[in-house]
């Protein structure tokens, strides 16, 4: 079954706004620049929209040399993309332990002022080690028989659990019907912070996805994506509502949790990039 890439997005700073792209460089770490930075509290815990929904109003933009930041009421700020030689600082993303380095006092003050909490901005350390979940890789290999050498050596940055999040446009259409039945207004795909959005599958057919392949790229579906309340944050205002969480809870409560989207990793790669309009073949378990 053929699917088409409809949208590509990177989220340079974990939990801040995304950047839509027509084409992106890609490695086993994910789309280039995705979740390269994380904001942490004084205690070293990651800041996310779960506690600070205003983070969605922070707009990153990438140039050839800098990461540019903008937010309501704040002066623009920019950070060099050059990698600094800095001490490793521990970072915990859910159950994973990795490391970053501090981007300095000036940008820490910028984030602290906007969020109203003392915090620091960390970039993934060049020597950071964060492999894929070995059990997920083993289960996928047993299901598919595909080679896992690339999966076994994959390291990635500050995404929640896997290098890529994929969502299906037809699933959003179906979900929005449930939202409207409950008296809500349709929501956009930006609520779900997907790196790759596809068309060509039926609604929720991604639940049965094993792999997406082309002659140059191969994605392994390692885990369905269990959702927290973050999709209830309105991206344009930072306000928290009831939808689409209510609709998800009533229609998508599966054994793994409340599911929308799937978590991918590359198991083969010959091409350096991925682009909108690209076709991939879906390998399904049904």
UniProtKB/TrEMBL annotation:
Q: Which residues form the MOSC domain?
A: 119-283
The molecular function terms in GO held by this entry are: catalytic activity; molybdenum ion binding; pyridoxal phosphate binding
Name listed for the protein in its UniProt record: MOSC N-terminal beta barrel domain-containing protein
